[in-house]
Design brief:
Largest sheet: none
Structural class: mainly alpha
Shape: elongated
Radius of gyration: 22 Å
Strand content: under 5%
Number of strands: 0
Distance between the termini: 13 Å
């Protein structure tokens, strides 16, 4: 019985993740796809003179620091959840 409940909860979480990650109408993908088509058109021409942007080193800022901390918290949460699920199943 425990195993069935755990599997059901896993499927619920996966389903919610798919719903959250799916394309929504608020995102404007048409602009990105248009820029991608223009870029591909430029680089595929014979004898093109495309010069890429110089990669600049990213300077860590407040948002990067917060993002790294949140990522660490999420990793710890997934590890703890995995351990709990293993204990329940075994």
């Amino acid at each position: 019985m425990k195993r069935a409940v755990v599997i059901f909860l896993i499927f619920i979480f996966l389903f919610l993740g798919i719903m959250i990650g799916s394309n929504s109408s608020s995102l404007d993908n048409s602009k990105l796809s248009e820029e991608l088509k223009d870029f591909e058109g430029q680089i595929t021409l014979p004898n093109n003179d495309y010069h890429g942007r110089d990669n600049q080193e990213v300077v860590p800022n407040l948002f990067a620091k917060i993002g790294k901390k949140v990522e660490a918290i999420i990793d710890k949460t997934f590890d703890a959840t995995k351990d709990v699920i293993k204990k329940i199943i075994d």
